[in-house]
Amino acid sequence: MIPEAIIETLKTLVDADKVRTDSASLDTWGRDWTKQFEPAPLAIVFPKSTEQVQAVVRFANEHKLALTPSGGRTGLSAAAVAANGEIVVSFDYMNQILDFNPYDRTVTCQPGVVTAQLQQYAEDQGLYYPVDFASAGSSQIGGNIGTNAGGIKVIRYGMTRNWVAGLKVVTGAGELLELNKGLVKNATGYDLRQLFIGAEGTLGFVVEATMRLERAPKNLTAMVLGTPDFDSIMPVLHAFQGKLDLTAFEFFSDKAMGKIMARGDVPAPFATDCPFYALLEFEAVSEDIANQALETFEHCVEQRWVLDGVMSQSEQQLQNLWKLREFISETISHWTPYKNDISVTISQVPAFLRDIDAIVGEHYPDFEIVWFGHIGDGNLHLNILKPDAMPKEEFFAKCASVNQWVFDIVKRYNGSISAEHGMGMTKRDYLGYSRSPEEIAVMKAVKAVFDPNGIMNPGKIFPD
């Protein structure tokens, strides 16, 4: 079909005013937070119901038109970028919370519900949705499921996968599947729900999700600790885990701290300058637990693992300490960072970081590197900042060389080239570093079952 006919047909499948082709809309809904690929979608459609999603998918199948899902567009791997004439399916108007069951502690919602909206809804019910990260105010539940989002609470609560009780999905063939139906126990064969979690929209679209909730944590308390080197962070983690049930354990480098301090809107936690910092959080539900935290801090100082530290004494101070970590991504975005989201087993983290730091520093000593991440689950974020004078194209070309070296190290450590951001166009060519040829063949076969015509977000996990 010619583009004009496609647009007119789309207007009959969704509300006529829910199809956009103006350049501003194509640019806005055709991209995510990455800056490596320019968006070039054919059109943006905004379905308001499952039936409309099915109609769009069936039409796309009939005419072999590629579809790309769009949620909060906060992704960091270009999985939601439509760069090759795709039709973008935005879930902005499928944004309702549909049901709440206090006995099962579940809430059923549409995919366009914003993460913070679900968190607030849970809080209003006296409960807690624990998957949390800096983009919670704009990311959407459908996108979180599509990438199996992790964030800052994984050490205690796990990934998004742990909180999905049931899904309704429209497959690449336009079929509607209801998966698991909110059950805690269900031993009736393959759990197809798990295939759609982390699939980045390549098997089908989530149109409804039943999410589990948890009891609300009590008296959350944070500590920021400065360490003399990265190696000291691991015994600090071990010491605190031996005494407390941590809800988070994050780290960031002095360069990350420097960028935050330069903003001027977050107070320094203490006066001592340190090469690395750890931020940990726990529930101080009693004076004994708070005292255990302070005693463990003193032990770490005696062992010279910690140079200085502070513990929050109020809700405001808790928020300020968290800003030191959560503001990093937004702050360094000015430098067009090239991001690597990598992971290994926790015990390997120090040696792994040293190897990567050395190889990048050797080949590109002029590049500024900002490290931070979820050290409690082995997830490191390597951010290479673009020099102001270097053109974007040249910078990304140099970073492609960095990828080869970094991923060689990841493979040597049996790690993952994408811990929580997904594959997308930025990682698809490197899938073989984390998956065997046999695994990739099975993954492609699974995709063919659910998406026989290959229309669902093509080129986002497998190379073209």
Automatic annotation (TrEMBL):
Its cofactor is FAD. Keywords: FAD, Flavoprotein, Metal-binding, Oxidoreductase, Zinc. The keyword Chloroplast does not apply. The keyword Oxidoreductase applies. InterPro entries: FAD-bd_oxidored_4_C, FAD-bd_PCMH, FAD-bd_PCMH-like_sf, FAD-bd_PCMH_sub1, FAD-bd_PCMH_sub2, FAD-linked_Oxase-like_C, FAD-oxidored/transferase_4, Oxid_FAD_bind_N. It catalyses: (R)-2-hydroxyglutarate + A = 2-oxoglutarate + AH2. One of its GO terms (biological process) is respiratory electron transport chain. Its EC number is 1.1.99.39. Homodimer. This is D-2-hydroxyglutarate dehydrogenase.
